[in-house]
Each structure stands twice: as structure tokens, then as C-alpha cells.
């Protein structure tokens, strides 16, 4: 039981908790305020909506690749070596289509 308490005390930092809590609160308030603004609008500007959705999708894809791609590359090199890094995407696509 002492090892578990030691792990929890090391993993849980009060400063990190409040920082994460404030970020979550800020994101929730921003969503609520945006919803109120959207509901109070007289008419829908479809061009602005299209540009906004395109921008947000681009940001999400960029962040996903920025976070996921280096980890995937390191795992691929670890398993298949640098040769697998060059040929694995082509082989995977070839096997998926047959």
C-alpha cells in the first residue's frame, strides 16, 4: 500500500491540478460564450461558418500530426529499422488494397 501512496503523491501535483483545472474551465466558458453568441445571431453567415470550420479542422489535423507522427516514426524505426521507415507505408497500402 505504501508504494501505491508514493506513486499517487508523485503523480499528483497540486500546481498541475489547478493549472489543468483552469484550462478546462476556460475552455468550457469559451464554448458556452460562443454558443450564446451563436444563438443570439439574427442570421447565419455561411461563408464565415465554412471558413471557421475549415480553419479549425486544419488546426486539429496539424496538432494531431505534430503530436502523433514523431511517436509513430520512432516506434516504426524501433521495430523495422530505417529500411522499414522508407518502405512500410507503401507495403501497408499495397496489402490493404489486395
Give a short synopsis of this structure:
The chain is mostly helical and 98 residues long.
Give structural notes:
The chain is 91% helix and 0% strand. With 98 residues, the protein is mainly alpha-helical. The radius of gyration is 22 Å and the shape is flat.
SSE arrangement:
Layout: H1 2-11, H2 14-40, H3 46-97
Which assembly state applies to the chains in this document? single chain
The low-confidence runs, each spanning 5 or more residues with pLDDT under 50, are none
Task: Estimate the helix proportion, in percent.
Answer: over 70%
Q: From the helix content, strand content and strand pairing, which structural class follows?
A: mainly alpha
Task: Categorize the overall geometry.
Answer: flat
How big a fraction of the residues is strand?
under 5%
Major sheet details = none
- How many individual domains? 2
Radius of gyration: 22 Å
What distance lies between the first and last C-alpha atoms, to the nearest angstrom? Answer: 53 Å
Q: What series of H and E elements makes up the topology? A: HHH
Features:
single chain; about 100 residues; mainly alpha; about 90% helix; flat
Amino acid at each position: 500500500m505504501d508504494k501505491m501512496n508514493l506513486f499517487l503523491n508523485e503523480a499528483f501535483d497540486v500546481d498541475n491540478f489547478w493549472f489543468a483545472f483552469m484550462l478546462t474551465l476556460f475552455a468550457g466558458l469559451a464554448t458556452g460564450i460562443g454558443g450564446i453568441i451563436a444563438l443570439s445571431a439574427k442570421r447565419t453567415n455561411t461563408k464565415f461558418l465554412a471558413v471557421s470550420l475549415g480553419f479549425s479542422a486544419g488546426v486539429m489535423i496539424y496538432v494531431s500530426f505534430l503530436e502523433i507522427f514523431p511517436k509513430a516514426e520512432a516506434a516504426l524505426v524501433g521495430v523495422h529499422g530505417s529500411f522499414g521507415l522508407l518502405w512500410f507505408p507503401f507495403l501497408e497500402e499495397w496489402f490493404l488494397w489486395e
